[in-house]
Amino acid sequence: MPAQELSDCEAEAARHRAMGHPVPAGQCAPASAEDVPQRSVDTNAECEAEAARHRAMGHPVPPNQCAPDQAPQTVQVAADAVTECEAEAARHRAMGHTVPADSCEPMENGEMDMGTADAPMDHAAMGHSMWGHASDTAIPSGPPPAAAGAGPPRAADAIWGAEAMRDSRKALAQENGGMKTLWFQGDRLEYRAREGRDGYLWDVQGYYGSDLDKFWFKSEGEGSFGEEIEGAEVQALYSRAIAPFFDLQTGIRQDFAPIDRTYAVVGIQGLAPYLFEVDAAAFLSDQGDLTARIEVELDQKITQRLVLQPRAEINLAAQDVPEVGIGAGLDTIEAGLRLRYEFAREFAPYIGIEQEWKVDGSADYARMTGEDPSVTNYVVGLRFWF
Amino acid sequence: MTDLSISRRHLLGAGVVGAASLAVPAWARGGDISHGGMLRQGFDEVSGSSIDLTIAEGRRIVQGRRGHGIAVNGSVPGPLIRLKEGEPVKLNVTNMLDEDSSIHWHGLLVPFQFDGVPGVSFPGIMPGQTFVYDLPPIRQAGTYWWHSHSGMQEQSGHYGPLIIDPAGPDPIQADREYVLLLSEFTPLHPHTIMSKLKKGEGYFNYQQRTMTDDYPLSAEERRMWAEMRMMPTDIIDVTGSTYTYLANGFGPDEMPEFLFNPGESVRLRIINGSAMSFFNIRIPGATMNVVAADGLPVRPVPVQEFQIGTAETYDVLVEPVGEAVTIVAESMDRSGMALATLASTPGARAAIPALRDPPLLTMADMGMSGMDHGGMGHGDMAAAGKAEPMSGMDHSAMGHGDDADAGSMAGVSMDGMNMRDTSLLPPDVKVGPGIDMVSMNPVDRMGDPGIGLGDVDHRVLTYNDLVALRPNSDRRTPSRQMEIHLTGNMERYMWSFDGQKFTAVSDDPIRFAYNERVRVKLVNNTMMAHPIHLHGLFFELVNGAPDGFQPHKNVVIVQPGGSATFDLTANEEGDWAFHCHLLYHMHSGMFQIVTVTPEGTGA
Hints:
The structure holds two protein chains of two kinds.
Chain A: H1 3-18, H2 42-56, H3 84-94, H4 114-126, H5 155-160, H6 162-175, E1 181-193, E2 199-209, E3 213-224, E4 231-243, E5 246-257, E6 261-272, E7 276-285, E8 290-298, E9 300-301, E10 306-317, E11 329-341, E12 347-358, H7 360-368, E13 374-385
Antiparallel strand pairs in A: 1-2, 1-13, 2-3, 3-4, 4-5, 5-6, 6-7, 7-8, 8-10, 9-10, 10-11, 11-12, 12-13
Chain B: H1 4-7, H2 34-37, E1 40-41, E2 45-47, E3 50-62, E4 65-72, E5 75-76, E6 80-84, E7 89-95, E8 104-106, E9 130-135, E10 142-147, E11 159-165, E12 176-185, H3 190-199, H4 219-228, E13 244-247, E14 257-259, E15 266-272, E16 279-282, E17 288-293, E18 296-303, E19 305-308, E20 313-318, E21 324-331, E22 337-343, H5 373-376, E23 480-489, E24 494-497, H6 502-505, E25 510-512, E26 517-524, E27 530-534, E28 539-541, E29 552-553, E30 555-558, E31 563-569, E32 574-580, H7 583-588, E33 591-596
Parallel strand pairs in B: 1-5, 2-6, 3-7, 6-11, 12-15, 14-22, 23-26, 25-33
Antiparallel strand pairs in B: 3-4, 7-9, 8-10, 10-11, 12-13, 15-20, 16-19, 16-21, 17-18, 17-20, 21-22, 23-24, 26-31, 27-30, 27-32, 28-29, 28-31, 32-33
């Protein structure tokens, strides 16, 4: 065996060992007569030496694979051109590897480099991919050459006419990132069973717009059956994405109950770490009163369709607002737990419990009107969106 | 050896009807299609120098599920178009829809004005109009496909296979050959799917993390994923919860049958013609020899499994044994499968394996390769003291099975890690709410077998296994390299290149000088695998193949959090689409135009 081939073999063996393949220590030594049955034809010696290496590395190679009559009929080696490439291809076929018939033919506009073709064929057939990645450090990064800007700005215009292309070009941009979405969600639509008169609550929101800019609206309200409505409001907001998970929202809030009042709104809405859905806003009324509201929800999936949702809401006030029963500081706290079943993602009835507390000044205002500042609601409701 | 021309006339799938021979088929007379507007499953074959194709709509039923469909020549998939290398062809496409349509010849080298992308190559085909794609002699052979590039018609059934027979002898010899075109059926309108993805992250995923799941995740790992506001189960966006996966238009209960005689070799031309699905292809009991990728031949690679990204094609040779073997195309998230049978006698069937457990995303998918060797599939490399020279090597494919903990992030703390360090991005990436993650260490992942296949105990194909069969015609070292970042925001369902949706860059294409040789590195700053497709040109994967034998492709999967690199010679002038082939990603903005200046103006 030539010295060069021997060292190639050992280099490969070393690589195999490094990968944890068992390779016997002496496997690169020239094959002895017992190991490899020698044949008189010279070309077979090379084949069998390689077969021996393959066997030593644990690849199955049939014992008589170098015999010419074992080659499948698909092997077609041109009689006049037994190139090195084709000889090796034939050996591979004999070992049962699939090598297409014209694998040694160059492309019509290319030039075959037989030298480079040989070595990797081994690896492919042996199931290894061990070429190092070509270094790209020598290739400069940079803008395109000046010639890259030399062509017409829109190649299709030159063929079909700018007029003909206009509509489709507009449609293309619209279709690939420019569409708008309409969303409406009934987050909580519920019946509230409690001491005294049972009540109801709605909490809906929705938007229309693009990924970053949306018109957003929200409405909330609640009351007890047979009584005047306790609270009702609608917000109209411009919503702008300011971070991957958060929107900044500004606009107007209009209350219809307990009294008509208009507010300016600034808030953020989005998804906090640990998947808390957060909606926080400050409200400045046309009377100069400043209040704030923070809502936090968390969807805990029990199964793929059963979802437990803890929810908390805190209302704050910078001053007393006696006409609506709000005391300065912490105004109200709500804590709820709802269990919903998603028959579809869009349609999920739920049951739950929610506790409301009016705090400090607000509690005093409640007591003055004969209300209980602490109420427990047993709720049945529906969450839906479309 | 059996003459190929005989085996080409076999059935391409059950239920194929020879409608191509009818003078004026019913579907060509108007918008309504025969059979009471029902579209046929399976496809015919058309060939010749002038081919008529008619786009029309109708209703589809797949395994009892009904939906609206857009078909070509009355069937889904549309007809197999069989062309011949070296010969010109006229493809006369009539649009019977009441909206614009188009056909793009995926992978075919054509003058750009016939590439079929409305708004880039041509104005589109108006309702009632016949557009003639007048193609000069075909310059290639192999397995390709075609599909609509208008709206989201592709999801509704507007696609089909495209085979080009070589002018000379085929370098890939087989006794029989079959086309296996994978796709999906959904009763939902594609606009509905798009809208649900925008409104509800994870809408179609019914394999999410729950309090009762069986995922091998520790409490710490669950906490970490929740902290990141991301899902380790976010493998593909649209799943088997709405899709029925199709083989040649047939659902798994109606699987097509491909016949063989014992001892024969069978060439399968596998096309992923789906809108949104990656498939893991296996034939239990048989070894597949991968012999062509995206149409062009590669040195044979024997594998037991490979992942095919959306819009990729692979030709494999198999020598099936026994009565029958099952061809299993399992969706990457393992929520469903498409099936076909190789049968030695009609009606023979082999066992159908169960769906495997859904995979989980890993540290490497978060762009944190190198921080957890297990996730990279290297495992014992460091111990062998060979980690450096072996980088880029795919260990799992070598059958070591040493990366069983690839799905695990045990012991890895996320504390102090910034999942969105935008200072790592080059200045030409526009930072904004459309980027929710930046890969911390985006290593080359072309040696990765794909999501979920890092720990299987058999041989799986990776891009690093591919070597061109014929030498490349252009072996110049690229004169420059450029980087394109794949960016997105899962929660908002925004997808883009370099942080900008196509709407923001539609007048600012990626420019190449004519005949310029460029190295392009795609860096994935998302946790999803993206199959990136370049129209009009083949590029060569920089995968460590020997000099001059880098494999040609027109789609490259960029694994989550990693990178993929290709070289290209910009020798096809005109404007070409460049986009993620996941339909709803493209539709969300992951689309660009590549401009190659006309010959004579360039380098």
